[in-house]
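Homework-ish question, so no full write-ups if that breaks the rules, but can someone show me the predicted structure for this set?
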Amino acid sequence: MLSEGAQRTLPETATADRRNHRQRLETLRAFVLGAGFPILLILIWDRAVAITGTRLIPSPYQVAVMMYDFTFGGVYDDAFSGTILTHIFKSMQRVYGGFLLAAAIGIPLGLMIGRIKVLRQLLDPTISLLRPIPVTAWLPLSMIFFGLGPNAAIFLVFLGAFYPILLNTIFGVRSIDPRLFEAASMLGCSGAGMFRQIVLPASLPAIFSGLRIAHGFAWILIVVGEMTGVPTGLGSVVMDGRTLSRTDLVITGMIVIGACGFVTDRIIVAISNRLLSWSPQHRE
Amino acid sequence: MSEAAAQDILTIRGVTKRFAVGDGELEALAPVDLSIPTGEFVCMIGASGCGKSTLLRIVAGFEEPTTGNVAMYGKAITGPGSDRGMVFQDYALFPWMTVRENISFGPRQRQLPREEIAKTADEFVRMVGLERFADRYPNQLSGGMKQRVAIARVLANDASILLMDEPFGALDALTREQLQNELLQIWKRTGVTTIFVTHSVEEAVLLADRVLVMSAGPGRIDSDFRIDLPRPRDVSSPEFNALRRDIARRLTSHLTLARA
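A: Not a homework solution, just the prediction itself:
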């Protein structure tokens, strides 16, 4: 009896092993290629600095030292040493304050504009008028509204994140197959139930692509937002580095912003893969 | 006579439908009168543009008739309702719900107790033979399986009229034949009144108690065939073929007429 069981499972485990092996090789290749290209860029950067002998651009090594000092301190021991977590924390507060506010207003508003014709007629022209205005053009006004401080930064991030979320949500609702509404109503669904059970889940793929675009904008805008005279935050580190002509600090700030955006984007992708497992075209 | 009228589940009186097309109007349905007794299996057949789908959508409550009225057991139909369920050609399943969730959607709307909803879902998953696929999403199913889910979704909602708009049109011949048999089994077991739109004469003669041939320009019911062949029907029997020939002749007579 035991040998019979073993005989049956043996070939199965063998093919499973081979499949796992192939999968591991594929993952390894993706990692080598994905990590290899930035390493190549750093090498080119290092050689270019060495050959031209420029003093305006630091070498990768100098930036690495700055990054170490920014993270742990103990090299330069200046105002920036060992302060990385404070800056990341402050910037994240502003990025996610603005981003979540944009999502909290953009998604419900988008669902309603997409579904309710009167609301669409009322708001569509205004949205089309306001949308092309660059967020940076709002900078002076936002400083008047919110003064010098974090609220102006949050407002700018909010503005930048709001339109992609709103427009993608509207698009998502507008492209729902009308048959689904007919099917739901013949099965006894109506009113608020229709919003919760049909409109929201059916437009979720579009909403998530809006959230991803908006999230990218939010990190881009943090530098602009933190130009408005806040003392901490990754954007202000970059601006301070410029003022002090410390290019190593500027590049360090840039790398940290990139890394933060990358990691949080992966988190959004993981959430959307989980929620959208039913939809084949939205898996990555 | 009056007793027979009382048994009619559906009465259609003087129903017409006009659509606005550009500046003009398209007359999709000329006045249609029709009574359907409870439990009957009716096939509507006709060339495209004969208004058969429009008539079906009016019965479903998705479209309003321009004039006339449709009543179920004497009560006027004013919109979509759970007493009538439609099975669409392109399935229209909710892609974010599993097979079981799709089937239990109707019962869930009525806020029945949880155990009762689960029991109904299990019962209808079993009825269409999808026990092994109950937790799959629609995009992981074949066309035939999707259409089984769509039928179960309507029946689980206790619909007394099953409306089917060319439901097997997108399926391959083998799956289509299998589903036709399964539909007949289900119809026999549940006694649900069925209105089935098709453009296959063979399908109509195989399934129906009664075949309505519709003609276009504007759409109307041209002839009403009663199919009294015993089931299961033999598609190669002379009687079957005689009926098929008669109905096909009615159909093509309009096609040549329309072209002339």
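Now go work out the reasoning yourself. Hint: The two ends of chain A are 44 Å apart (CA to CA).
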